[in-house]
Amino acid sequence: MEEIIGMMVALSIAAERMVEITKGVVPFLNTARENPQQEKLRKASLQLLAVGSGIAVTFLATPMLAGSLPEHWNNTTGMIVIGLLASGGSGFWNAILSYLLQLKDIRSQTMQQLTHLNPGITVPLAATPTAAEPTLLRTVKPVKDIAA
After folding, report:
1. How far is Cα 105 from Cα 128, in angstroms, rounded to an integer?
2. Consecutive sets of 10 residues in the chain, 148 residues long: mean pLDDT of each?
3. Nearest to 55 by CA among 80, 92, 91, 85
């Protein structure tokens, strides 16, 4: 099962990369439109591109996938279904990547605020400090109270 999940992750990421590369080449796909009809067309085009990318990546990876899949999936229909799953997943992985990048930015900003308030004090790396060690987290107000 882990092999199939890993395969789906890899296919989804590859399909997403194909979509992103195509968006970079075709300006219409890369820029949101103010006109609702044009925006609807752009979003539909991106969905079709994602489906096509997922299926294309799956067919390109068929030789590598053959050993990982059950026998009844090793045919054209099985590859199309896997491609559709990968294309649907590309949006999911893109959203996860966006959330992770936002989390990284928030963490970086929080660390900057904490070190700015107490220069010379290092921020502990441990998520849960032990009771014996003094930490910056015990001496600084929570971030939401800093602005107040």
Report:
1. 21
2. 73 88 90 91 92 92 82 85 80 67 82 73 52 43 43
3. 80
Give the contacts of 79 (CB within 8 A, at least 6 positions apart): 55, 58, 59, 62, 65, 73
Please tell me the number of Cα atoms within 13 Å of 72 on its side-chain side. 0
**Token couple for 140:** 């600084």
For residues 26 and 91, give the distance between their C-alpha atoms in angstroms, rounded to a whole number. 19
Instruction: Report in angstroms the alpha-carbon separations of 68 from 3, 9, 87, 115.
Output: 7, 14, 19, 49
CA distances to 3, 16, 66 from 56, rounded to whole Å, are: 20, 12, 16
The residue length of the chain stands at 148
Q: pTM score, two decimals?
A: 0.56
Nearest to 110 by CA among 68, 86, 64, 141: 141
Find how far residue 2's CA is from the centre of its chain: 19
